[in-house]
């Protein structure tokens, strides 16, 4: 059993040096560094990263539905 989950919902890294598109320089994205570390930060086209992924989007409709169905409890409950 693995201690992580990867799959289509998480996307796959894009590798600009192998022909994939690059994000805008300075755009905040998820990064795969040359050391194999996943982090987030601004894209720099300086060779310090192997790949990138767009940041995930929030689904505010689902968050509102969850908040409606499970309102926060007060500290006194």
Can you describe this structure?
This protein is α+β, with helices and mostly antiparallel strands. It has one domain. It contains 1 helix and 3 strands; from the N terminus they run βββα. The longest helix has 10 residues. The protein is elongated, with a radius of gyration of 18 Å.
Given helix and strand content, the structural type is: alpha+beta
* Largest beta sheet: strand ordering: 2-1-3
* Rg from alpha-carbon coordinates: 18 Å
Helix content: 10-25%
Q: Please give the largest β-sheet.
A: 3 strands, antiparallel
Mean pLDDT: 86
Q: How many DSSP-defined strands?
A: 3
- Global geometry: elongated
What is the number of helices? 1
* Elements, N to C (H/E): EEEH
> Can you tell me the number of structural domains?
1
Uncertain segments: none
Distance between the termini: 38 Å
Please state roughly what percent of the residues sit in beta strands, choosing from under 5%, 5-15%, 15-25%, 25-35%, 35-45% or over 45%.
15-25%
Write a compact overview of the structure shown.
The chain is α+β, with helices and mostly antiparallel strands and 77 residues long. The chain has one helix at 60-69, and strands at 28-33, 38-42, 49-53. The chain has a 3-stranded antiparallel β-sheet, with no helix packed on it.
């Amino acid at each position: 059993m693995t201690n992580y989950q990867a799959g289509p919902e998480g996307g796959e890294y894009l590798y600009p040096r192998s022909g994939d598109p690059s994000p805008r320089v300075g755009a905040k994205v998820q990064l795969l560094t040359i050391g194999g570390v996943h982090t987030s930060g601004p894209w720099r086209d300086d060779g310090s990263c192997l790949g990138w992924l767009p940041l995930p989007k929030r689904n505010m409709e689902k968050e509102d539905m969850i908040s409606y169905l499970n309102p926060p409890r007060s500290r006194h409950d």
